[in-house]
Amino acid sequence: MKDNIYTIPLIDAFHSNHECPFCFIYNNMENEALEFMLGSAYMADNIREKTNKLGFCSNHYKLLYEHGNRLGLALMMHTHLLELKKTLDPLLEANSPRESVSKLSIFKKKETENNISKFISENKSNCYICDKIDRDMNRYLDTLFLVWKKDPKFIELVKSCNGFCLSHFAALLDMAPRKLSGNTLDEFYNIIIPLTKENIDRIEEELSWFIDKYDYRNKDAPWKNSKDALPRSIQKIASMDVTNYNDSNN
What we know:
- There is one protein chain.
- By secondary structure, this protein is mostly helical.
- It has 2 domains: 22-129, no CATH class; 162-247, no CATH class.
- The chain has 12 helices and no strands.
- It has helices at residues 7-14, 21-37, 45-54, 58-67, 70-94, 97-102, 106-124, 128-150, 152-159, 166-179, 182-212, 229-238.
- It is globular and about 65 Å long.
């Protein structure tokens, strides 16, 4: 089938030997987003308008801070904080002790307090980077089904991969009935469900051997493929790449 901007990275991800091709894509997109945000993007008006409104989640604040461009992050933080204050300051002022006693009833005061908590909670859940990655990730998931229907070689490639993390496996199961039908849908289930079970069993066995290697009786036994089983297990279960394990067995 004809390639598009999502097809080639998708196929590359299935060649990556990663525990989850979609986590592989996610990690690449996240690294690119961090580089972009602290490169030229933080000075672009159209980007700053969005980051002023949304900010970032706790994890991406941490990653942006660790990236090193503290001035760029400070500039984004400052204008985001100014944007927050436009809504937060009136809420805080309306809920001051003086205003509560002189102008607000007990019912109005309770409603205002809830509005403050609601605003803070909603703001905390916003993230410019997460939103961008989620949109692109949905397109990659959608592309899998498009390629699945048109390219038998891709189906063979999927069969040979290491399966998926539980989160992306669930996403594929949820999307499949909307993207496939009839025998094609049955074929999809008959491939990815056993594939997932097989690779969960594999990672469990590797993790078990990793643990057994700490028994003095196995001191001289080979590690087999278990030396990096712990981070790969975390990837498989929690969709979290805690270390760059791809090169650990080279």
